[in-house]
Specification:
This protein has 121 residues and is an alpha/beta fold. It has 5 helices and 5 strands; from the N terminus they run βαβαβαβαβα. Helices cover 43% and strands 19% of the residues.
Length: 121
């Protein structure tokens, strides 16, 4: 079974770029540009890895991570937090993110992280 990666990214170009890169590596990928129905999306897609951006109009990354961790299907799913700054990095890790990656994304480190988490499943 292929690893399923769910991406929450409000910048469409970044989300689509990550999706194309991960599809090229053989992963199943779903991108969401909003986080208004996080639990429904998780319940339907059943991701093996979740990638989330720092900020959305109504929720912070801390809110998003807490919702993900409260869902029975995603409470143990690895979360990669992507940020353009160090803002909220510690808080995101404390809330349950497994790692944080800074923009601009180092593709090799990013793919290594994905492969590492995929091998855990």
């Amino acid at each position: 079974m292929k690893t399923k990666i769910l991406i929450f990214e409000n910048e469409k170009i970044i989300g689509e770029t990550l999706k194309l890169m991960l599809l090229d590596e053989g992963y199943l990928v779903h991108v969401e540009n909003t986080v208004e129905q996080i639990n429904e999306i998780i319940d339907n897609f059943k991701p093996s890895i979740i990638i989330t951006a720092r900020r959305f109009p109504k929720l912070t990354v801390i809110d998003i991570i807490k919702i993900i961790r409260q869902n029975a299907l995603s409470k143990n799913v690895p979360i990669i937090y992507i940020t353009g700054s160090g803002e909220q990095r510690k808080e995101a890790l404390d809330a349950g993110a497994n790692i944080s990656i800074f923009k601009p994304i180092d593709i090799n480190k990013f793919l290594f992280s994905i492969k590492s988490f995929a091998n855990l499943n």
